[in-house]
Structure prediction request, 461 residues.
Amino acid sequence: MKTRALILAAGEGTRMRSQLSKVFHEVAGIPILFRVCQAVGPLSEKTAVVLGKNFNQSKVKIHALYPDVSLFHQNERLGTGHAASCALPFYKNFDGYVLVLPGDLPLLRTESLSQFLKQAQTEEVDCAILAFKPENPSGYGRIVSFGNTFVSIVEEKDASPEEKNIPLVNGGVYVFRARHLVEFIHSIGNHNVQNEYYLTDLPAILAEKGFNIRVFTAENPDDFLGVNNRAQLAAADQTAVNRKKHDLMLSGVTILNPESVRIEEAVEIEPDTCIYGPAHILGDTKIQSGCVIQAGTVIQDTTIGENCQIKPYSVITESTISANCSVGPMAHLRPGTVLKASVKVGNFVETKKATLHQGVKASHLSYLGDTEIGEESNIGAGTITCNYDGEKKHHTEIGRHVFIGSDSQLVAPVTIGENSYVGAGSTITRNVPPCSLAISRARQTIIRDWPKKKGKKCSQS
Prediction:
């Protein structure tokens, strides 16, 4: 049977104490709501999200990544039942199942939801509830049953002392036949402590009318770790990161000192890469096989080719590194950096919007910004591309097989022709033709006995 997913994400999240809506806080580098969208995406033909405050800002964020998701606005926070009714047009004329779930469960996985849906469809339920048994059920709604017969879901605030002792709790994930949602969603009342319309009351309403209600127990309680405050956000983030590292290690990635390594959800790492802790690998990063990522590195939104060495305490952001490159130690590759094959960027070298072609070496203490450097060129220690004139950035072009002597300044815009040399200590302000030597130095002057003339002692051995 066809399935649509309805995500309820209109809660204000006041306990987060944040101007950012709760569901847009990140877990393992991905906003909570987007993680839920990812989990349901392969299972539903269409997805809808019910939002609350900051609707217009949230709409822009969601549609930037999920343009086909339908959005509905809950103007008043009157409970989950009311939120589901706000999306009535989404399922009104739909002949299938509606998977309803909260937008603040970042650890839900497609596999768990898929199994739940299969169970519901196999038994041809009218409503199914996904429950679990946490170590501490405090704060959760309890599943009340008589034998194997479902009776109701009781929120903790409304539960009796006996009901609070029930170990099986509501996970907040349901499957309803769409036609039952349409017919009975407005039968939910608000006779409770909060005076809200609880979606949790709908299964009991359907049960009283003789419909087939089933409760299925999930295997992993961690899937239902919700986020209501910063402490829970940190716990969910740690669990998600640990899952990611575990999956990578099983796939053939070596992670030494894994407790000190952070790898976010979207990161892709191929087998036979070795990662030394501590390290942070973040965002949309892709690392091919055979790489070594050493201690203290931070890599974000970067692609790294095969057999690269990223040495200790290097920081790399929004860059592309081809095969067999060496970076660091203590190098800083800023956005727009492109290293072609077999490039060496050494200690205390900083790059920004720089393309270094095959075989280029910049081994020490240099700044290379807004520049393109041709194949097999060598950049001496202390070289600076002076790319900023106080108002605009300018480009430096260095040809193939160029040797730049140590402590040189290339004042952009400037071009150094291929097979040329720049003498150490030069300040280059004009283009250098191919196959040339450029030297720009003041004449060295020596004044003997200068300390004596300043009234200071001067001994000679």
Q: What stands out?
A: Residues 253-438 form a domain with the UDP N-Acetylglucosamine Acyltransferase; domain 1 fold (CATH 2.160.10.10). The two ends are 97 Å apart (CA to CA). The longest strand covers residues 169-177. Residues 306 and 323 are 5 Å apart (CA to CA).
